[in-house]
Structures are given as structure tokens and as C-alpha cells.
Amino acid sequence: MEECELCGRGTEIVHVIDIEGAEMRVCASCANGKRLLYKEDKRAAHKSSVDLQVKSQRVEKGDMFELVPDYGTVIHNARERLKIPIKVLAEMINEKEHFLARVESQKTVPPDALVGKLERALNVKLRESG
Ligand SMILES: [Zn+2]
Question: What residues have a C-beta under 5 A from ligand 1, the ion?
């Protein structure tokens, strides 16, 4: 929030105008009809700091990664490609066979740790980057 140099009202978007060679920082209504040099959006700066806060909270929680929408198919296709039966895969990564079957049919969302193990065992990516 910044005060308009003409009317003194607070404004979120500062309009920098040219009045006979002098720069004035004014509100939208005072800038109306004047020669506008550029605008400064005070909200944009504020907003991005809020976004950053939200992002760092997400990272701390550690459970906000996005699984690819067809993770079951990705796991299934990788198993087919490597010719690994689900029972063998379960033994490889020390998980229950029926649990893996549920994950593969997307009835169960795999926990973070299992996603990591599956990715390493099958050499696939189950998480969206970013
Ligand atoms: Zn004004």
C-alpha cells in the first residue's frame, strides 16, 4: 500500500505518471487521462511472498508430491517389461503382494516410502516433477 501523491489515498497499484517532466506516484483515478510512464503492482510482491510460504510448508510436510494419474498402469507396464510377477516384486521391495496388487489397480494410493521403492525397483517415475 502506498499513498497517492496527489490525493493522498492509499493505492495497491501505483501509477507513475509524467506531469510536465516530473514523475508523480499516484492512484488509478488520479492517473486517469495523464501520461502514464509505468505501473507498480504492490499486491504482486505481497502475493509471491505468500506463495513462497505455502511452498515451504508443503516441502516440510513431505507428503504433497503428486503421483502420476496412471501410476497403476506405469507399475503394471514396468512389471510386464521386466517380466517380474507381482509376487516377486513384493519380495524384492519387502511388501505384501495383495497390497501391491491394490496399488497396481489404483485402489490404494501408495505411501511415500513405497513410491520410492517402486521407482527404484522398476526404474520408473511415479511422481510428477515439480
Ligand atoms: Zn489519487
Answer: 4, 6-7, 26-27, 30
